[in-house]
Amino acid sequence: MNEPVNIRELNDLIASKSNFSNMIRSGMDRRIVGQKHLVDSLLIALLCNGHVLLEGVPGLAKTLAIKTLAQLVAAKYSRIQFTPDLLPADVIGTLIYSVKNESFEVKKGPIFANFVLADEINRAPAKVQSALLEAMQERQVTIGDTTFPLDSPFLVMATQNPIEQEGTYPLPEAQTDRFLLKVVIGYPDKEEEKRIIRQNIYGTPEPVIPVVDPKEILEVQKIVEKIYIDEKIENYIVDIVFATREPSKYGLADLQSIISYGASPRASISLAKAARAYAFLRGRGYVIPEDVRAVCHDVMRHRIGLTYEAEANNISADEVINNVIDKIAVP
Asked: To 10 degrees, the CA torsion angle through 306, 311, 312, 313?
């Protein structure tokens, strides 16, 4: 059950922390042209302490956006370039024998950071991808017989290229389900493209200066956890998720042959968390249906399995989500 909360006090508290998101947005705007949805999605992931998967063709500033966000936060950052010859030890670390001490010592891998950029994550084989599972879910890493907790905040921000299939390994459902959001990035418009040209051929980019520290992020995350979600909103979230599992019960019988499996319970949890973060970015201490609808596609598109019939008819998960949102009554 929701604990009683004073909405007015919470709104005042959120207003006092509004500078947090404004400074990050301002810092991102100095390096990233356009891509407002991408920036908002990264902020939502940061506020929820969740992981984000960015999908888009090359050259859309996916890596630059993640790197810039990490630089704006005075925290430890590491980048892992996923390749077919990568090994799990290259990600989490391994035991190395020390001749001097005549014992094995732990050599920690790049996963031990606050922000981990998993660049082109679908280029590494399954055993490397699975090495991330424990870190992403339990926020700990086991090397040998020892388990090491990871520092907070801990975010895995991964990128993947959807147009290349050769030399890639599609992420398994268990892996994608651990990402809070899957954000699909599109091309910039003409005016943004011209700004990108000017920014890259005249002068040098401005240096990125940290504007927040990890302690402040943790404080804001605690505020986001206090944002009020009414029981009607909880029912709305559950109905959206259940409509992907049992579409015929919600008047969506046409989707029965299109959906092979529906969204998991993590989808319900992630919808609630992301909606809270979205409400925070809008300066509210409570969640409204529009918050849920705003984050629904990013939260659920990677959690719905489509049948061969859907693929043959070029029906995407986003179209399924549109049908579900249009059908479920708004509280």
From this structure: 90
